[in-house]
Design brief:
Strand 3 and strand 4 form a beta hairpin. Strands 3, 4, 5, 6 and 7 form a 5-stranded mixed sheet that branches. The chain has 9 helices and 10 strands. The protein is of the alpha+beta class. The chain has one domain.
């Protein structure tokens, strides 16, 4: 099954990128990604006032080819060379994770995107977040957070994030349903209304999609229950329960074939700065 996660998707495909000069070591690849991107909320940490145009538009880049095009426009240095903030792509956690996933696949390491919740950004909070999961030489799947840089004082290796510090969405869903985690502590902390069980369910669907090669933007929507505080039916709860319980790739593929859980070709992207827009996704 690892072959599935060596194969690029329309989202992770780096196009005609020459990977000959890239390291094969996942740690070095993560460092390269960290030196090419800057999170759009972290300009002050780098003493950088992010231009409004980049703040509004960079993170709407759905594909790695777009990220690489923008990086090429901002500098002709190799991807392995650290860039000043004004030469970087201004993205979100999803962009760090997707680019690392792309480079890992391109250099022979099975990798996949995971959507879920991190506990290491805000105290007593499960923050909406994306990371990369890769197959280590010992055969274990490890969680890697390429966004975590020197300013973050985390008590673990960002290339092997503990499963209780980043909860993949299905694990967070089960913890909420079993009463171990309050769903009102799960979501996007800067915005008061973006939290709750409905939000956790949205990440369960996005994580399932990513595991099936549809690596969405965090604000993509296609289901009315993905809207703020939309009530969930018993059918919604049961379907998310089934996804959260799935452990095999066969089960995840079977579940993704369920029309309730499949991302359609036409979606709405509820963009952070540019408003809602209709998007046609590429065929797998």
């Amino acid at each position: 099954m690892d072959d599935d996660y060596l194969r690029q998707t329309p989202y992770s495909d780096p196009g005609d990128l020459d990977t000959g000069g890239l390291p094969r070591d996942p740690r070095r690849l993560a460092a390269a990604v960290r030196d090419l991107l800057i999170h759009r909320g972290e300009g002050p940490l780098f003493g950088y006032d992010v231009p409004e145009e980049r703040l509004h538009h960079d993170a709407e880049s759905r594909y790695v080819t777009e990220i690489l095009r923008i990086l090429t426009e901002r500098g002709d240095t190799p991807l392995t060379e650290r860039r000043a903030p004004d030469g970087r792509f201004v993205g979100t956690c999803r962009d760090f994770s997707l680019l690392l996933c792309s480079l890992l696949r391109a250099t022979g390491t099975p990798a996949r995107l995971r959507c879920g919740f991190a506990t290491y950004f805000v105290d007593d909070w499960y923050e909406d977040h994306w990371v990369t999961e890769f197959r280590a030489p010992d055969g274990r799947w490890r969680l890697a957070d390429a966004q975590v840089h020197h300013e973050y004082d985390v008590p673990f290796d960002p290339m092997d994030v503990p499963r209780d510090r980043f909860l993949v969405a299905g694990d967070a869903w089960r913890a909420c349903r079993e009463g171990r985690v309050d769903p009102e502590r799960c979501g996007f902390s800067p915005v008061e209304g973006l939290r709750g069980l409905w939000f956790v369910r949205g990440n369960v669907l996005r994580d399932l999609a990513a595991l099936n090669g549809v690596e969405l933007l965090p604000w993509d929507g296609w289901d009315p229950r993905l809207l703020v505080h939309a009530p969930l039916s018993e059918d919604d709860l049961a379907a998310a329960d089934a996804v959260a319980a799935a452990r095999s790739e066969d089960d995840r593929r079977r579940l993704y074939a369920d029309p309730r859980l499949t991302v359609p070709a036409e979606i709405t992207s509820h963009t952070s700065y540019l408003g809602d827009r209709q998007v046609t996704l590429p065929a797998r």
